[in-house]
Amino acid sequence: MLAAQTVTPNYSDIAIIGSGFSGLGMAIRLKQQGLGDFTVFEKADSVGGTWRENHYPGVACDVQSHLYSFSFAPNPQWSRMFSPGPEIRRYLEHCAEHYGITPHLRLRTEVVRARWLDADRQWLLELADGQTHRARVLVSGMGGLSRPALPQIPGLATFQGTTFHSAEWNHDYDLRGKRVAVIGTGASAIQFVPQIAPFVADLQLFQRTPPWVMAKPDRDVSALEHWLFERFPLAQKLMRAAIYGMLEARVPGFTLFPGAMKVAQNLAKRHLRQQIADPQLRAQVTPTYTMGCKRVLISNDYYPALTRPNVHVVTAGIAEIVPQGVRTVDGALHQVDCLILGTGFQATDPMPPGVLFGRKGVDIVAAWKDGPEAYLGTTVAGFPNLFLLMGPNTGLGHSSMVYMIESQIQYVLDALQTMQTQQIQAVDVLAGVQASFNHRLQERLAGTVWQSGGCQSWYRNAAGKNVVLWPGFTWQFRRLTRHFDVQNYQKL
Ligand code: NAP
Description:
The protein is α/β, with parallel strands linked by helices. It has helices spanning about 20-30, 50-55, 85-100, 190-195, 225-230, 235-250, 250-255, 260-275, 280-285, 300-305, 365, 400-420, 430-445, 450, 475-480, and strands at about 10-15, 40, 105, 110-115, 120-125, 130-140, 160-165, 180-185, 200-205, 215, 295-300, 310-315, 320, 325-330, 335, 340, 355, 385-390, 425-430, 490.
């Protein structure tokens, strides 16, 4: 755990919000460039972002750690191919220390509002403790999946037992011997269900839509590999490159030839047959939409957990929550002691209203009335000198977000460099440039499995617009963000 620190100036050239992979990565790269006038605001008492917030049992990354890590900070000692969450958190804490970010951190300091001051051409940050802070440039590393989504189920508040969301896991509540309801079968639930199933008395798993689940090619990283990666960093680089290439090879299936997903579907069905013998249970958990439309999940212990005598998959829709438990539309009452919401995040509404105000005091939520939108997922017209890391349409269904984050960081660094050499105080992306970028982006998304795969997903907002995913190869994004294109910006 990192100690809180630091002098508290009320101005820095650059303010960064959040200290997960985005915020920390930005801070480290600034420091490496000799740009030391920045402050990182973190509402919690330690760094880590997603990996600090999500501490449910079994939390792990579903992207190989050799790729899901900073390119400039390889970790030869990853314990597994897919490392557990706490190990990733420790990695980020190590990075903060190692790269000298600790003195720039303002922990336990929540930014509650940020306003662009037109006259001063600066951002004014209002902090939860009543203080303010000014900065010329604002980098948001708040992440797209940081606001838990609570389901709109009637009666949720009337439940008399214990309720918590997977991202707010209540470790003080002893689940042993309890009757538990889990709502949701997404990436989080399939990780924690196998962990808790062995010791709860009864687990009712409420599944609305079955996920596609593939085998997880996980294993311990051997002592020999650790030695090799320590001694010959190139070996780990090659491993990283091989994983990158393997994951990118999935892109055409998602984007150009959704029909090709049939091959992968057959593999997933074989995985299901191998792990679940009961034809009725198998039928219950077999998806009917094209694989990839929703995030593809990987697990070796999810299906076996469902075969346990104390686990019951409930596919009847939830009608309401009552004080004793969950009532399904078939009239059955499922009495439970605890309700765990594995219901995901508000991905299509990453920002609440009243937080971020741009030129002329416009709230970004108002600017985004048709859904979040940015230029290169990074800058937003009317919000000068604001850079969103993991902004709209930078998400991935197939590879490492850290790669996307590093691409965006490069873009921000080049923007800062350009502003410095050209003596520009502030830049604001041209509305027309942003609009035509998004027009092309949505055109590319039209033919993808995410639009045509026959499912509802958190990639798309209520109007069906995909505001979350990048529509192609990640190297295409990297190419677009390699240099800051100042000609597409108004200079202020
Ligand atoms: P999620 O994938 O959005 O899953 C939410 C689940 O809750 C879905 O099964 C959904 O059903 C269900 N649900 C939501 N509202 C419901 C309602 N009112 N009634 C019944 N069911 C409801 O959320 P998540 O599992 O927390 O994962 C979110 C994302 O976080 C992942 O896709 C991934 O990007 C990230 N994540 C990553 C990892 C990792 O290993 N890298 C691990 C965990 C999470 P429907 O499918 O029918 O909507």
